[in-house]
Amino acid sequence: xxxxxxxxxxxxxxxxxxxxxxxxxxxxxxxxxxxxxxxxxxxxxxxxxxxxxxxxxxxxxxxxxxxxxxxxxxxxxxxxxxxxxxxxxxxxxxxxxxxxxxxxxxxxxxxxxxxxxxxxxxxxxxxxxxxxxxxxxxxxxxxxxxxxxxxxxxxxxxxxxxxxxxxxxxxxxxxxxxxxxxxxxxxxxxxxxxxxxxxxxxxxxxxxxxxxxxxxxxxxxxxxxxxxxxxxxxxxxxxxxxxxxxxxxxxxxxxxxxxxxxxxxxxxxxxxxxxxxxxxxxxxxxxxxxxxxxxxxxxxxxxxxxxxxxxxxxxxxxxxxxxxxxxxxxxxxxxxxxxxxxxxxxxxxxxxxxxx
Length: 356
Prior knowledge:
Blueprint: H1 14-24, E1 31-37, E2 40-45, E3 48-55, H2 59-74, E4 93-94, E5 100-105, H3 118-135, E6 147-148, H4 153-171, H5 179-203, H6 207-217, E7 230-233, E8 237-240, E9 247-248, H7 251-265, H8 270-283, H9 288-299, H10 302-312, H11 324-335, H12 338-352
Helix pairs in contact: 3-7, 3-8, 4-5, 4-10, 5-9, 5-11, 7-8, 7-9, 9-12, 10-11
């Protein structure tokens, strides 16, 4: 069992304290303290240190996660925080108010540094490949249902492209442009070119065959393969954490998100992307058709269009409180990456023989 010293304690009061302690009574441990840490709770018990995490409130998703954890254990995949069974032999505990919880080991380790460490990038890519291999053959338990993103990428590409064009056309009728408008107009030709290229490559690729293969393999994806969701541990090396966004999807979608996170930290350095692809392929080889779909995802300017849509259409989540100057600063930062992005895409095409 993986244990560590206490990181700090909080004295809970009221209903929150009662609920957490009642939930913990479902497991055969003797808890001593509960401390909040980001979006989880660290539990110190006589038996060691544990992580108590609330998962999706929808029972179908919670049951699917329970099935995933059991499936990965059965496949011998250890590069996650192992879940503990309740006294009733379940991996999910449901509180009286309908909230669902899991209890896992508290992983001891460090956050990887994708900005500075090639070794950490290699370890993350290999861990992801092994995770995908272990995912194959998964069937949710009765009542369980994973998110499903299979066959969704073409619709996402085309719908956002249409929204982008429509927003640009609307500015023609706006009498006075603000600073964000002017930046949008300035970068629009490049954003449109990238979006059209990404859409064209995806629409002429073998994406449908990849979807069919993933469906037949009954595999799943992590859904959020950013640096924050890896931990380097002494026991198991690089581990994946936070399985909240598990979904059915083609595996290259996870590879794309890992590459995109690394490129953001390394100024679109092509050698870093190649390092990920070579490392991943050393454990689970990628074929050319997957690389073509990956190129389409990298060419399509998801981050830029997402920011633009948030500014004009749906200011949700954290961005709901952003001042206009923050939107402007972010759009300017993304727009200034144009030369680096263009060089990266050219290097990618040359390396893997993808025609434009």
